[in-house]
Amino acid sequence: MNAIPTLHNYINGQWCASTATEYLEIINPATIEILAKVPFSTASEVHQAADAAAEAFVTWRRTPASERVQYLFKLKNLLEEHFEDLAQTITLECGKTLAESKGEMRRAIENVEVACGIPMMMQGTNLEDVAKGIDEMMIRQPLGVAAVICPFNFPGMIPFWFLPYAIACGNTYIVKPSEKVPLTMQKIFQLLEKTGLPKGVINLINGAKEAVDAILDHPKIRAISFVGSTPIAKYIYSRGAANGKRLQCQGGAKNPIIVLPDADIAMTTRIAADSAFGCAGQRCLAASIAVTVGEARHTFTEAIAETARNRIVGNGLDQGVEMGPVIDVRSKTRIETLIEKGANEGAKLLVDGRNPQITGYKNGNFIRPTILENVDPVGEIARTEIFGPVLSLIHLNSIDEAIALVNSGQYGNMACLFTTNGAAARKFRYEAEAGNIGINIGVAAPMAFFPFSGWKESFFGDLHGQSNHAVEFFTQTKVVVERWRDEWARQF
Ligand code: NAD
């Protein structure tokens, strides 16, 4: 039997065994095989990483932006070269299908590509003669050391909403992956190491609460990006702000889609099913409530129920599988309890995905797609982020009622409308209180050249991840005003 590997941290250009005394086993959610052990790194390891990053910053910020992005070009090539292996690793530790893992890595690479444009994106502005002989300019400078704290559901993509921009802008960086899925970042750091980035520019700290708290409190860490659940996002935002840090915290979600009676039902059903059941519903942009208006209550309900029943569930590595397991037993039990609660609250269990028998994987954390109909719009199920393959149906009579329901939620990550009516689409785009809007499409994640714009309790901060928002987040502006008299040049 092979020994179970123990993951290391990467600090100051070295792979280091952790001094942790506590470890977590990383378990393949489909097979329940133990893949590795991850250390719960200590505060002192975070301090080492922050100190190394602060030291590296002195030289890194002086490296021209055009030179800094050369490392990203190398990284892009390495990620392409190791694309299949990285996608497999995501599926092994996270459970999603191989196609979903590839989609995730593709978006990660796209962020590297966008950040290669930093020499253009980071430019400031200037104006000559703001007064006679006086020029004023705004320049962008990096902050120093920054860090990201990641969730379990996109181990390959989410760090890339931040890392490429952070380092291309001249900052040095610390990544704290989710302790549930640390293998992908371990592999990505092996590739980052191959790019030849100077020591200390990028650092990897595995761990959980102790490591996070040390990041929040370390005086040399200037900016923190967080992605995860809303209660932890609020915690990070308040503790980090109390320590004077710049923060962007992406939280949880409860995403509604509205189906109008004129929608193309076949297309809507296919997209709604992908949105609700893709990645087993463990996406912050997953559709979790479908609101039908008028006649759509019959057409859409029948179609989505059939699609849910026919979804092929299994090990994400197996061919033809359309949906994998949920991350762990705790999650499975929580989701099943919420399904039960929905039924107790009066909803009809139209498709019950609990306790499925998946041939060959009887111990895996599987739940099949589940649909609850006539969910109470103000009940717990309509309000709670289930983060599993569960779609709640609510039937209403008008677009105004549907938009009011969308806007009554605490979250504002994503909302979609399905219709063939342009005026209805405009009304929805204008009125819906969510930062990511889909019209006849499920928002998977904004392309890397747009910001990821969650609202309300789905986001705490002002500058979002990706694109020009990331450049703004990872730089501080300096305004310089200069007077140079013409006569001083006359001597030459
Ligand atoms: P989580 O909040 O449990 O964990 C996220 C990170 O916070 C992990 O790195 C974890 O180690 C750390 N953490 C957890 N508890 C902590 C504590 N008490 N103190 C300090 N640090 C702590 O989230 P998760 O279960 O890994 O991920 C799922 C959640 O992430 C869902 O709510 C989902 O909606 C959300 N999410 C949001 C987005 C978005 O863009 N808004 C994207 C992906 C996931």
From TrEMBL:
<dbReference type="InterPro" id="IPR015590">
    <property type="entry name" value="Aldehyde_DH_dom"/>
</dbReference>
<dbReference type="InterPro" id="IPR016162">
    <property type="entry name" value="Ald_DH_N"/>
</dbReference>
<dbReference type="Pfam" id="PF00171">
    <property type="entry name" value="Aldedh"/>
</dbReference>
<protein>
    <recommendedName>
        <fullName>methylmalonate-semialdehyde dehydrogenase (CoA acylating)</fullName>
        <ecNumber>1.2.1.27</ecNumber>
    </recommendedName>
</protein>
<dbReference type="InterPro" id="IPR010061">
    <property type="entry name" value="MeMal-semiAld_DH"/>
</dbReference>
<dbReference type="InterPro" id="IPR016160">
    <property type="entry name" value="Ald_DH_CS_CYS"/>
</dbReference>
<keyword id="KW-0520">NAD</keyword>
<dbReference type="InterPro" id="IPR016163">
    <property type="entry name" value="Ald_DH_C"/>
</dbReference>
<feature type="domain" description="Aldehyde dehydrogenase">
    <location>
        <begin position="15"/>
        <end position="480"/>
    </location>
</feature>
<dbReference type="InterPro" id="IPR016161">
    <property type="entry name" value="Ald_DH/histidinol_DH"/>
</dbReference>
<keyword id="KW-0560">Oxidoreductase</keyword>
